[in-house]
Sequence to fold (317 residues):
Amino acid sequence: MREPLPGILFALLGFALFSTHDVVVKSLGGVYAPFQIIFFSVLFSFPIASIMLMRDATPGTLRPVHPGWVAARTFAAVIGTICAFYAFSVLPLAEVYAILFASPLLITILAIPILGEKVRLNRGLAVIVGLIGIVVVLRPGQAVPTLGHLAALTAAIGGAFSSVVVRRIGAEERSVVLLLYPLVANFVVMGAAIPFVYEPMPVSDLGRTALTALLAFIGMNCMIYAYRHAEAALIAPMQYSQILWALLFGALFFDESPDTTTLAGAGIVIASGLYIVFRESRAGVSQNTPVLRSRSRIGTPAALRIGPILRLRGWTR
Fold:
């Protein structure tokens, strides 16, 4: 049996790089609109992405087999990206992560109508508890949820929907279709919005947008290596290490200090997400294991989807 420790360490490194990516996005978000940041981030990622996609030797065209699902997934990916970048720009890092961590809960819910997944009592209760954790983070009655909170929740929903759709159509669609459409859509949509929001960027800020693309690319490859060398049940929980980076980076760079309510809500969401991962890893509990099959992280438009890349390289197990 292969030693899983290298995979786990690479997963931790990948999520650390993604958290650094989010710090750069947040620093840029204080000056520039999300559309502009995303546009240049995707622009700088195109050469690398194109080289990777050229490795697809599968015969066929770029016309999707399921155009409706591909269009819906692409739309969700674009909206989710915009919302994630906006949320990182206006909210403390820990609050954004606490809400984005709801993705496994949302995947479990969406897998019922889209995949026909049957959710039994234990997983259903875990979803309910996790959603209560989100309510705790939003703390209605104590503070008014902002547009940033709504954006983070929308990003989580968009990411969950994209993951479930990939699980539904991934076996029939070419990997290059699943990878290229969201990338091109982000570039086109953000490019169309640029004339309305553009602010001149000095070379240093252009360099930082290029850095987001580089961090996303390296982080993606770390995750590919991680999933190649360890089971998904061991890798998936590593995403929650990002809350530690949020606390550290938030304090160091943005003078952020999350309150007890935010941390308590995040703890509830994390606990419920871990339970769902644990349940799906048990044989016979889940028909589709939609959460374990979700390998990509929300809010990194310059990083290609990890699942199709694994399949493209013949590494899907």
Remarks:
- The CA atoms of residues 32 and 201 lie 9 Å apart.
